Amino acid sequence: MNKAIKNEITRRNLLRYLSNSAVFLPFMRTLMETQAFGDVAKKRAVFYFYPCGTVPKTFHSSTTGSSFIFPASTKPLAAVQSDLIMLNNVIYDTGGGVGSRHQQGNNYGLSGCEGEISNVSIDTYLGQKFPAQIPVLRLGVAHYSSSTDTMHNAVSFSGAAPSGGLPSVAAIEDSPAKAFAALFGSAPTTTGTPAPTGLSSALKKSLLDANLEQIKGLQSKLGTIEQAKLDLHLSSVRELERRIQALSDPAATSNAQCTKTLSKKQSFPDSDVGKSENFDLVTDLQTEVAIQAMACGMTNVVFLTMSHGTSGVTFKNGKPAAGGISLHETSHYGRATNGEAIHTANQAYMMGKFAQFIQGMGAVKEGDKSLLYNSSLLAFSEISDGDNHNYANMGLVLAGQAGGFFKTGRCIDGNGYTHNNLLVSILQGMGLQDTKFGNKNNEKGIIPALTKA
User: In this structure, what DSSP letter does residue 348 have?
Assistant: First the structure.
């Protein structure tokens, strides 16, 4: 290939030809940040912590494959069955059996470390690999309620433990109003009038169409192969342009995008966000804050913790309410009359909120896909059987396709694999090449069944 011709199709020269028009300037930074001058969909990761374990027989499907049935605890997930993978027989490889402690499971869930935390948790690690304005958005729902031992209930770590010391426990924001203000610089507005995006009406016109003569001039200098490459680049620009135009014109799509709005208002002061009677609304608001943050490109990694492993949030009839029985107490279902049904109902509530998160992400369109398609979400707890306190057959649910990496709509048997392998699977789903995570010395890498239809 003639060197002069080859140089004509470099990214710099192509941008020089296209950027003569002033209206093209707002796109320059975005184009320069895409890989190989193509619009590469960003991937996101969400970690959803629900506390106090499960009633295994009401959580796990008795069959695998695509025709699995959801028992009572996970029945709310049937609404998003095609977008998730249920995992059976995956363990927390901590060496703990019956009678294991909440703390050990809490500390292990995102770090993959069964003893001293020797690395940052996976949310922090991904925040470092996929930087954004907010590397990791950490939101809580009554996270600080009745929690007196920070390390005991810690799941997310921003720093590994120094020799002989404790790791750095990541801070959690329990107030949706404060979280929204930190992200967008103002109090949340409710759905109705989308916030302005800052793009002028002039940008609604196609920049490529406005620069056709310059593009044709470049094409006339290229050979057949080079023209094909240019066409590919221009297709990428066209798709990027279409996405940005959709953000500037909310009427162009019926799906929620970067509106910087919430559907509900926080109707109580920040001092009351930890109350059981506010738990449901805070959950909905935090979910919306998280989705808006990802839709607006503020973060690529979210950690949402539904209270904590020894939660004092009280439940009545399967819903959080004042004057009920604490979630931690109901998790010891073998000690109470009808305890199994009560804890099953409580955890069905948690799975319903996870399904709501999945549906919300599915509503955010990204090209011909969605925020959900380009993401992976993991629902996990610190204990398997809440009554026996063990780490066998953990209650794990993976959702989202991570850009096509995960094959959803199935229940798989992860027998022989550990939670460390699941964490590695998420890392590779995000495009990384890690073969292990945490301090377990296994080289099994990912759980292969997650990627095979």
Answer: H
Number of domains present in the structure of the chain = 2
State the residue for tokens 């109350």: 275
Query: CA-to-CA distance for 38 and 27, rounded, in angstroms?
Result: 13
**Domain membership flag for residue 323:** yes
Distance (Å, rounded) from C-alpha 204 to C-alpha 241? 9
pLDDT values of the chain reduced to their tens digit, one per residue, 453 residues: 555 544 544 545 545 544 444 444 444 444 444 433 344 579 999 999 999 999 999 999 999 999 999 999 999 999 999 999 999 999 998 877 666 788 889 999 999 998 778 889 999 999 999 999 999 999 999 997 555 567 888 999 999 888 878 899 999 999 999 999 999 987 787 754 333 332 233 334 455 555 555 666 666 767 776 766 666 666 555 545 544 444 444 433 333 489 898 998 998 999 999 999 999 999 999 999 999 999 999 999 999 999 998 889 999 999 999 999 999 999 899 887 899 999 999 999 999 999 999 999 999 999 999 999 999 999 999 999 988 889 999 999 999 999 999 999 999 999 989 999 999 999 999 999 999 999 766 668 999 999 987
- Tell me which amino acid residue 375 is: S
- Does 140 reside within a domain? yes
Q: Please, where are the H alpha helices in 205-296?
A: 207-210, 212-219, 224-248, 279-295
Return the number of other C-beta atoms located less than 10 Å from residue 260's C-beta: 21
Give the rounded distance of the alpha carbon of 28 from its chain centre: 28
Pick from 69, 145, 53, 157: which is nearest to 113 by CA?
157
Length of the chain measured in residues = 453
Quickly count helices (H) and strands (E) in the chain. 14, 16
Cβ(79)–Cβ(355) under 8 Å?
yes
Instruction: With respect to residue 253, please indicate whether it lies within any of the assigned structural domains.
Output: no
Residues 270 and 244 in one domain: no
Residue that finishes a domain, picked among 184, 218, 248 = 248
